[in-house]
């Protein structure tokens, strides 16, 4: 068993143990990948203020997210195809999150269905909705999430049409994977993954296949998305979904001050400041750079979560100190899942928890709720002078 000390170790192991098409899918951003890269490099530009000779005993990084206690304010973000990174991946990730005491979010585009995940966990999870053209399907999946006891609906607003990720087209990404000769040869070098997949029946989109009529051919994600996702999604339709759901609502993919204000006025319990991990609008600014202006506009009116680019506890601390109430991680836990299944997701959470706790102590803080701009050194031009 290799020694894992950081998220990057999990990423290397993920690349080694999981078929190329699925690792590449996770590791891609859209088009030139500028936004994907800057999500990470912009975190590096923010520096931390060291404080010494401060009592650091009895520390806590525990908090709450949308009113529920959490071991740390870090939720697992919705990730499509999770069950292709490792057999039954959504169940593994949900179990790891439950044991750790953080929320798990199940994607509409998951391999394990809502019902499957609910049957294999006991903590309520969050359900992420993509709005399809088929309103009956949308109504039914909302009802299914309610029936499964999901504690929040995460409505994703930044992907009605897919940003192109070049590698997915070259690899012929699909679930189940297309058995071309290069794919078969590559899979033969990943024996543990193959054994897992042979041992499960869950190899395609469990929330959709068998539930939506006329789903068609799912092998090309971009044309499938264009056919199935509702391009007319607007605030009116968001209201219809809010009313049908009736529970806690989180609006995901907000990257603009006016949109954040709209979401807050709309009564969202939380927003996720996100550029979808750099997978959608290439050229958008990083989420962390957009955070301060959104905090100034809506702090206290709706809970502010942030994702895109978090690879460490230091990154979580920076987001909280800049005013986020909580964070979500996507790739950081997917690397763990692809590397070592459920144990790898647990490892990712342990790594981030330990880094967050240590970094908080070295900043001279004992309670995560006391973090603020006083802990940071932010370059004067960080937010940029954009017209
Ligand atoms: C492989 C992959 C699949 C994703 N699938 C979904 C999805 O199905 N629904 C969704 O709302 N967001 C999806 N996202 C976006 C994540 O929820 C999250 O916003 C993003 O991963 C955050 O960036 P990070 O990976 O740098 O942490 C996906 C991200 C990745 C990397
Ligand atoms: O890949 C993604 O980022 C994503 O959200 C998605 C969209 C459509 C189908 C599967 C995943």
From TrEMBL:
FMN binds at residues 78-80, 107, 128, 130, 156, 252, 274, 307-311, 330-331. The keyword Protease does not apply. The keyword Flavoprotein applies. PROSITE patterns: FMN_HYDROXY_ACID_DH_1 (PS00557), FMN_HYDROXY_ACID_DH_2 (PS51349). GO terms for cellular component: plasma membrane. Glyoxylate binds at residues 25, 165, 276, 279. Its cofactor is FMN. One of its GO terms (biological process) is aerobic respiration. The active site is at residue 276. It comes from the Bacteria. Belongs to the FMN-dependent alpha-hydroxy acid dehydrogenase family. This is Alpha-hydroxy-acid oxidizing protein.
């Amino acid at each position: 068993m290799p020694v894992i000390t950081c998220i990057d170790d999990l990423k290397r192991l993920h690349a080694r143990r999981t078929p190329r098409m699925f690792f590449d899918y996770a590791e891609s951003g859209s088009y030139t990948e500028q936004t994907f890269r800057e999500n990470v490099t912009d975190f590096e530009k923010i520096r931390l203020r060291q404080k010494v000779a401060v009592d650091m005993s009895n520390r806590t990084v525990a908090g709450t997210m949308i009113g529920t206690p959490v071991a740390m304010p870090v939720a697992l973000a919705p990730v499509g195809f999770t069950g292709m990174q490792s057999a039954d991946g959504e169940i593994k990730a949900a179990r790891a999150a439950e044991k750790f005491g953080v929320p798990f979010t199940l994607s509409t585009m998951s391999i394990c269905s809502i019902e499957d995940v609910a049957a294999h966990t006991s903590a309520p999870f969050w359900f992420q909705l993509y709005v399809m053209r088929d309103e009956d399907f949308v109504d039914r999946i909302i009802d299914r999430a309610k029936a499964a006891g999901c504690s929040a609906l995460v409505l994703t607003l930044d992907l009605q049409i897919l940003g192109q990720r070049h590698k997915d087209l070259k690899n012929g990404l699909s679930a189940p994977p297309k058995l071309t000769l290069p794919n078969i040869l590559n899979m033969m070098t990943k024996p543990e993954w193959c054994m897992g997949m042979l041992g499960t029946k869950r190899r395609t989109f469990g929330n959709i296949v068998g539930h939506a009529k006329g789903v068609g051919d799912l092998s090309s994600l971009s044309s499938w998305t264009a056919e199935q996702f509702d391009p007319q999604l607007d605030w009116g339709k968001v209201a219809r979904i809010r009313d049908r759901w009736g529970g806690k609502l989180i609006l995901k993919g907000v990257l603009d001050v006016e949109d954040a204000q709209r979401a807050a006025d709309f009564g969202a319990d939380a927003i996720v400041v996100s550029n979808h991990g750099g997978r959608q609008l290439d050229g958008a600014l990083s989420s962390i750079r957009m955070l301060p202006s959104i905090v100034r506009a809506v702090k206290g009116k709706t809970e502010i979560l942030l994702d895109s680019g978090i690879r460490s506890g230091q990154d979580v601390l920076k987001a909280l100190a800049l005013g986020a109430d909580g964070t979500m991680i996507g790739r950081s836990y997917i690397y763990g899942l692809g590397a070592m299944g459920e144990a790898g997701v647990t490892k990712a959470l342990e790594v981030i928890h330990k880094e967050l706790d240590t970094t908080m102590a070295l900043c001279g803080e004992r309670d995560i709720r006391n973090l603020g701009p006083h802990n940071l050194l932010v370059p004067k031009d960080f937010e940029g002078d954009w017209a």
